[in-house]
Amino acid sequence: MRRLFPVTDQTSRPADSAGPAAQAGDREWSLDELAEAYAYPPIGPDGHWLRANMVSTLDGAAQHDGRSQPISGETDMRIFGTLRALADVVVAGAETVRQEGYRPARAREAFAARRAAAGQGPAPAIAVVTSGMDLDFSLPLFSSPLVPTLVVTGAGAPAERVAEAERAGVEVVVAGDGAAVDPARAVRELAVRGLRRQLTEGGPRLLGQFVAAGVLDELCLTVSPMLTAGAAQRIAGGPSVAVPHRFAPALVLEEAGFLFTSYRRI
User: Fold this and answer.
1) Hey, which bits of the chain come out as E strands?
2) Which stretches make up the Bacterial bifunctional deaminase-reductase C-terminal domain (predicted)?
3) Cα 22 to the chain's mean position, in Å?
């Protein structure tokens, strides 16, 4: 990895102050430095903070051949791991879990002391959002996680599939009156369980639902220096909002042509 440095941070540092660039120089940033750069804001016992982590090409594609890995890179995956290590829970849609081959989050020694000091367990839980419960509960994500996996669904989800999930030891979180999940209620239900530092990795349909519901607090977006054309999804799909939501830049990093940005809701 070559140099990784902040280009700007308009919300937390004066323009003429020395930031991590002065510390990092041409060396690789440590995981501790990345963790400090992406630290969650203080969250009270009754609050929550939902951030999203997504990657997009220059022409707006969130995937290539149905997966995000081809448009990602080494540093993107390093930040991906850091964001996971800071979270209480990783929220993902069922389709993303299937396409990306999700496995249980693992404990990472580099973040163990930081998580312990924050009162967190050894690894984040994974919460899978689904209305149809079309999931294979024999997969390692459900059968052998370090931290029990949750399934977030609506009260109208197929009863036999809910029962199968519970027999497999999966906690089913009801966050909707019908089969569909209410995004705002999902955020609240996770927070009630002590999962207040929330990270969603999409996919685009789930992120679009969070955006439309007005519950997204932060977007961590990697801009990949690639062009793909085609008809790939954007990072957020679904119906548009009546008035665009305005976010402010909190952090911009650059390495090897990739931009790693964080925007927070105003």
Assistant:
1) 5-8, 49-57, 89-93, 125-129, 150-153, 171-174, 197-200, 218-224, 247-255, 258-265
2) 49-241
3) 29
* Residue 218: other Cβ atoms inside 10 A: 22
CB proximity list for 157: less than 8 A, separation 6 or greater: 130, 131, 132, 133, 179
User: Is 15 buried (19+), middle (13-18) or exposed (0-12) by CB count in 10 A?
Assistant: exposed
CA-wise closest residue to 219 among 188, 186, 250, 189: 250
pLDDT single digits (tens) 147-187: 999 999 999 999 999 999 999 989 999 999 998 999 999 99
Model confidence pLDDT, tens digit, residues 207-265? 999 999 999 999 999 999 999 998 888 999 988 899 999 999 999 998 889 999 999 99
